[in-house]
Amino acid sequence: QVRLEESGGGSVQAGGSLRLSCVASGYGYSRNCMGWFRQGPGKKREGVASIDSKGTTEYRDSVKGRFSISRANANDTLYLEMENLKPEDSAMYYCAACPLGWLQRDFHRMGGGDLGYWGQGTQVTVSS
């Protein structure tokens, strides 16, 4: 069974930084379509960043220049480096992997949370 295990969330002041980690295991997910979603209070779940097996990355506009997604070359660990955090970044952050066969361009289809594979979520709280 596919498992995504997240860590690294916490509470920081605006302008602070956090590094999220996600370790994927098992079989049946697409390594070409992995990344991070988040869901703030009263908001829809939204894609934050994605990465394919070659390291090509995509970001939503609001985090460009502040967040950086990466992965280890020799394993299935994902990272999300978050810099200059803002209160509007406060959310539950979920590591996600697409179903086998999906490509990076399909990542946004997972927004509803009913498709693919998901971590348990790690809370990020940014105070003003």
What distinguishing features does this structure have?
4-stranded antiparallel beta sheet; 128 residues; mainly beta; globular; 11 strands; 7-stranded mixed beta sheet; single chain
What's the short story on this structure?
By secondary structure, this protein is mainly β. The chain has strands spanning 3-7, 10-13, 18-25, 29-39, 46-51, 57-59, 67-71, 77-82, 91-99, 117-118, 122-127. 0% of the residues lie in helices and 51% in strands.
What does this protein structure show overall?
Helix content is 0%, strand content 51%. The chain is built from no helices and eleven strands. The termini are far apart. The chain is mostly beta strands and 128 residues long. The protein is globular. Strands 2, 4, 5, 6, 9, 10 and 11 form a seven-stranded mixed sheet that branches. A four-stranded antiparallel sheet has the order 1-3-8-7, with no helix packed on it. The model has no long low-confidence stretch (mean pLDDT 94).
Note the topology.
Elements (H helix, E strand, L loop, with lengths): L2 E5 L2 E4 L4 E8 L3 E11 L6 E6 L5 E3 L7 E5 L5 E6 L8 E9 L17 E2 L3 E6 L1
Parallel strand pairs: 2-11
Antiparallel strand pairs: 1-3, 3-8, 4-5, 4-9, 5-6, 7-8, 9-10, 9-11
